[in-house]
Amino acid sequence: MKKRAALPYIVWMLVFTIVPMIMVVYFAFTTKEGAFTLENLIQVKEYAGTFWESIELGAVSTLICLLFGYPMAAIMARSKAHVQRTLVLLCMMPMWMNFLLRTYAWMTILENNGLFNSFLQLIGLPKLQMINTSGAIVLGMVYNFLPFMIIPIYTVMVKLDTRLVEAAQDLGCNWLGVFRRVILPLSVPGIISGITMVFVPAASTFIISKLLGGGTMLIGDIIELQITGGANNLNLGAAMSLVLMIIVLITMMVMNVFGDRESEVALV
Amino acid sequence: MENEELISLKNIVVEFDGERIIDNLNLTIKDREFVTLLGPSGCGKTTTLRIIAGFVEPQAGDVLFECKKINGVPPYKRPVNTIFQRYALFPHLNVYDNIAFGLRVHKVPNTEIRQRVSEMLSLVNLQGFEKRNVSKLSGGQQQRVAIARAVINRPKVLLLDEPLAALDLKLRQSMQLELKNIQKSLGITFVYVTHDQEEALSMSDTIVVMNNGKIQQIGSPIDIYNEPQNAFVADFIGESNIIDGVMLSDYHVRFAGMDFDCVDKGFAPEEPVDVVIRPEDIKIVEPEKGQLVFTVESCIFKGVHYEMIMDCDGIKWMVHSTKFEQVGDRVGMLIYPDDIHIMKKSDVPVYTDGGEGDRR
Ligand SMILES: Nc1ncnc2c1ncn2[C@@H]1O[C@H](COP(=O)(O)OP(=O)(O)O)[C@@H](O)[C@H]1O
Ligand SMILES: [Mg+2]
User: Fold this and answer.
1) Which of A189, B57, B278, B324 has the most CB within a 10 Å radius?
2) Percent of chain B whose pLDDT exceeds 90
3) How many CB atoms lie within 10 A of CB B226?
4) Global confidence as pTM
5) How far away, in angstroms, is B154 Cα from ligand 1 center?
6) Which domains are assigned to chain B?
């Protein structure tokens, strides 16, 4: 019974996850003619700077999402039931609109003659260069991925038993102690999945940097260029994807180990 | 130092959403006393405990600790610890870290923590469980961790909210003994909440019977059982027959169509009263020798005694006897004056624990 019900998911996984992975690996290790080679992977080295920049911007965005998202999730989880529903809805609402449209909207806001600068002029302040900066890229990422940080943390916090908070107070904790010794360690699983859900798409994004970062090429953009654009080097694109996946995987593994230890050590 | 006043609740009122949950409650708890708050579910026992712990601020009234007012003092500054209903152990910590929690908060040196935790583990019989995950423990073991986690802080007062309610009967009885021993050997004041009258009777120095946010009676277990002050207490503590009666004069009462001698006085002539008679205080005799004549309606063996429902002109009585009676037989009843408890008619709704709905 159970096995048969799982079949559609197994097929789905096979077609949309396993097969593409195999194809990525295949193309990464072959030449255009299909012969085995390590050339592609060696060539990836030339893009080390871009890799680094992508990871850096992804990490900065993730950190900002965490700094905003955590208190937001905590406030949501402590609100009354109907306020909670409204806040979750507000948090999800931007996602009802297409990702591309939202990012274009930011373009018109941040442009040199855009909404924000017009406003600055109106109140007699000098214009700011916002579009085509890495700040704009980070803003775009934070805006687009913040809900992915809030929701998992909120989900964990809402399940947190208030009696544990009272137990900690009873044993002598003030609010800071309650946070440090109980709330924070118990919300680590939410933080980990929030970080994963923000960092992974942020580090590999390619539209945000293109639209808000002007000419800035992040690793996502370069991969796109190899596959669809002018460069037209599927094999190099596959090799880059493979390296990116491995980097993300390692980062996540480090995160998880750190997270496990954190929840144990946070109290001592 | 014994018998010193430790906690006083004075004229406490608590309202939630405009509803009065605690109604002018006055209670004094002495040092090293085992006090039990006893009452049906929803009567305000947990709320009273939370007032002492500092989780509920009363709308009116004073909370005194060693004669000092502690209204508004946050829970973490109060020298009391709580054992919560269903324990509330920290799921992210193992047994050792749960027990050590309070000491770590108070920055006790690690060597002392190690020594005190191991003392606690032997007190609650959990040696060797230090590294266990608390969620993998049985109910009884979790209970012991909760006790150790609270007691290790050497509180002046331990508040216990139905700590044994989730355990099975056997375990509950042995834990009752253990808790009582811990209380005696550590010399801590216990404020214990339960809805189980047997538990209250067997453990407490003092029982506080509550109903609808009001204290019904405060007294020793023996007083509460033998001298219930109103029909609610009589009915809630043990089994009781509560019969409508009329006081004829001092020491004379009429109920079930008969005049009886009794030991109570001070009622107005012809004053309607509640007459409370315990099922075990009714003696079964030959029909012609009895004060009343009953018909046996049912007779169920309860281990030590037979529990019988008897009919007397439409009023149902519960009678306990070690002798079996045939259903349908007519028997005589004797009730001694000592065993007739007269109570003022109260407007307190009587709590019935189901079953013999016709007794009143
Ligand atoms: N925080 C609260 N908000 C509203 N009503 C409450 C709250 N806490 C308790 N009550 C109500 O107060 C009454 C007494 O509750 P409680 O003290 O928990 O009773 P007990 O412990 O004797 O079962 C109940 O009717 C309960 O619904
Ligand atoms: Mg309760």
Assistant:
1) B278
2) 74
3) 15
4) 0.82
5) 29
6) 5-226 (3.40.50.300), 239-344 (2.40.50.140)
Residue to mutate (ligand 1; options B21, B23, B160; most atoms within 8 A of CB): B21
A27 to A44, A222, A227, A244: CA distances (angstroms): 14, 16, 11, 15
> Per-residue pLDDT for B325 more than 70?
yes
Q: In what order do the strands lie in the sheet with B214-219?
A: B80-83, B157-161, B189-194, B34-38, B206-211, B214-219
Summarised one tens digit per residue, pLDDT across range A73-92 is 999 999 999 999 999 999 88
Query: What range defines the domain where residue A203 resides?
Result: 50-98+130-220+242-267
Is A21 among the domain residues?
no
Answer yes or no: is A225 within a domain. Answer: no
With 0-12 / 13-18 / 19 or more C-beta atoms within 10 angstroms meaning exposed / middle / buried, residue A119 is exposed
CA of residue B21 to ligand 1 center, whole Å = 7
Q: What is the per-residue pLDDT across B271-280, written as a single tens digit (0 to 9) for each?
A: 999 999 999 9
Residues of A in contact with B102 (CB under 8 A): 171-172
The pLDDT score that the predictor gives to residue B357 is 35
Residue A43 maps to a domain? no
Question: Would you say residue A267 has pLDDT above 60?
Answer: no
- Which of B90, B94, B149 is most worth mutating to test chain A (most A CB atoms within 10 A of its CB)? B90
